[in-house]
Amino acid sequence: MTDTAPGTDEHGKPPAAHPWDELARMESPPSAFACAVTRDWPGYFKAVAGKEPRETLVKALEFIEKPGLAIDLGCGEGRDTVELLARGWRVLAIDGHEMALDLTRHHPRLPTGALARLEVVHEEMEAARLPTCDLLNASFSLPFCRPEAFDGLWERIHAAVRPGGLFAGQLFGDRDTWASLPDRSHHTRRRVGELFRGRYRLEHFQEDERDGQDARGNAKHWHVFHFVARRCPDAAIPGGPSPTNMPKGACP
Ligand SMILES: C[S@@+](CC[C@H](N)C(=O)[O-])C[C@H]1O[C@@H](n2cnc3c(N)ncnc32)[C@H](O)[C@@H]1O
Hints:
The protein is an alpha/beta fold.
């Protein structure tokens, strides 16, 4: 064992600051959505730090009996990932911002010993490899996919969610204020229907449209589709759930 000078690590450097302490020292932004509009992700993480898991994730978990492998796509500061870990899931947390992964790995609600069930990957969702999973959670992240890459991402998500598995999150509508931003993926209600039709049964679907404003009084019109979708059974997969096991719905 090597001796270290007081206040330094084994390489003689000051120990890395705890990411949540760094977050606490940051200046507070006006609101989460003021940050999201400019993709100021550190500001966003500060604005939502410590919040409870998203409702769509909590709803999705009501439909699943046994924990398995979940992908948290665009995990942010980890509010949903830590909930999944607390409920016994293995989690692959993916985010395009390194700070998100650092905060997730050090989240104050991270259950003891849960790091062994957590893998974090720093990658853009447009290119991320998505393994087969029981649940794909994409809370408020899909609108940030570049529009030209969205259809490819949708296909990779469908390929990743096992037949009978769940897909939860949000899509943003065409009447949302941010729909005019060129780097965002927004969809009409009709297109949202087409995206799910024949592939998923919607266990929960809510269209939310309202006016809002941030702390500085900036107006924002929200048009959001919240969903929990179950991937339809795939008869071609040996041993997969058969169509007769599935409750009636939108599945073929
Ligand atoms: C609005 S935040 C949502 C975070 C978290 N899921 C939540 O519900 O609070 C969007 C997250 O997606 C990540 N993100 C944005 N664009 C991305 C991209 N192209 N690829 C991967 N992650 C991205 C951001 O770093 C951020 O953590």
